[in-house]
Amino acid sequence: MVLPQFTSRGMSAEASFLKAFEAASPGTHANVFDVGANNGRWTSQWETAMREAPKRGQSLSVFFFEPQPVFKESLMQLATRMNATFLPLAVGRRAGMVEMIGKVGSVSTHAEEIREEDTTSHKKTLVPMVDFAAFLRDKLSGGGRYNFLKLDVEGMEYTLLPWLLAHSHVTLCRLHSMLIEWHLNYVALPHRLDAYALELSFLSQLRLGCPDDLAPVGVWMEKYPTNNFDQPIPGLLENSLIHAKWEGWSRRKRQDTGKREVANLAAQASATTNMAANAACSTRRVACHTSSTGFHEDNCMFDRITCDPRLAYSTYLRALNHPVNTTGTGECAAGLPMPPWKLNALNQ
């Protein structure tokens, strides 16, 4: 089957990157990093762009990572055909060997906790791992800005991204575009609140960690429903109540106010057709800006929370000491002593 190729037409992450690259001067070099290539489908869609670049006096290199042995032979053939670079490696915070875990009969491999009674349904593979911050630093040391990173590592993004943020001045800040696929369902329950905090604050951390003249132009977030929605996040409601505007109110007043806000959200949702909502929010690019728009009046509420530094404050330096919980939305999430009434927040 011939796959459609990425072009500069449209509004996708790939199209926006190619549009900027094609408008650059002759002699410009671009890099595409596909981390979590799986069967190589996404990687192969850059083949035409690689072939067309020399016609403009430009060049485009593609590097793709996939540690699963089941794909090694076919990906080596793809790399030869495209004149790209295939690295059968896992990526992480250090160089060495890592044990990857996957379900028997599946072509999806990731790190996860295994219950003792369920070990027979999993297979373990020992694979080499590269320090991805060091890899990016070396590949991007030339100073070019046309670099695209696609990250699809099935839960490892919550460990890898803090490491890259800690070295952002030589890694993420040198990218033109990023495409991140989040997998909250692969995170163990006790760590999901920290992981979700990283999701919400990632753009703020990136903005704080990069100089104004050196930061990605576009960051796209992909949150597939099966990977993220309807996933319990222990502690999310309690932390929301602690930092909500009605903290300290009586239980009755909180309930009444909450009901009114839920009603407002429901009314807004019913007044907005699916078509209008898709037109407003379907693009994966997050438009980072602040606004005085009411919390319940915004169809793109998640994007606004993600981009608003007032709602998602952080510092990327904390990533050095906190691999997952690199950020917080207040004193409790920042690792400071929590109020003694936190566990009873719902019963006050």
Automatic annotation (TrEMBL):
Residues 34-184 form the Methyltransferase FkbM domain. Pfam families: Methyltransf_21 (PF05050). It comes from the Eukaryota. This is Methyltransferase FkbM domain-containing protein.
